[in-house]
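Thread: "does anyone have the structure for this chain?"

Original post by V.I.:
We have the sequence but no experimental structure in hand. Need at least a predicted one for the grant figures.
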Amino acid sequence: MPSEVIIATNAAVEVAAERENAVVLAKSLTIDNQDGITDRVITLQDVFAPSNYYGAPTPIPGQDIQRFRALVVAGDIITWGEEDLKGVKCLGAMKVGPTVIDGGVGDRCHVTVGYEHE
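Reply from O.Q.:
Generated one for you, tokens below.
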């Protein structure tokens, strides 16, 4: 199972790329906000561009759908396993996005996401 560790800043970060005829399944998620000085809301986002169809505007705008959302208070660490994330799947690329802008040098939140393509 591939995994990715990111530092949650103020922009969404792609964790797993979109693959044709496959979905991305979230298998594990750890949010480590022990070094954080602000509370964080972390989301798993599904980012994809729908296929064109007859009569559709060209190009069809991409979709950005929130599949999972978690609040982690400053100084806390939370882990979700495969059973907890059952049903969290992305049709396109999986991105991790925080909703709190990074508070500076001392404000760090680390997110580890385990995933697989199916």
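V.I.: this helps a lot. The CA atoms of residues 24 and 117 lie 5 Å apart.
O.Q.: and The chain has one domain: 3-49+58-117.
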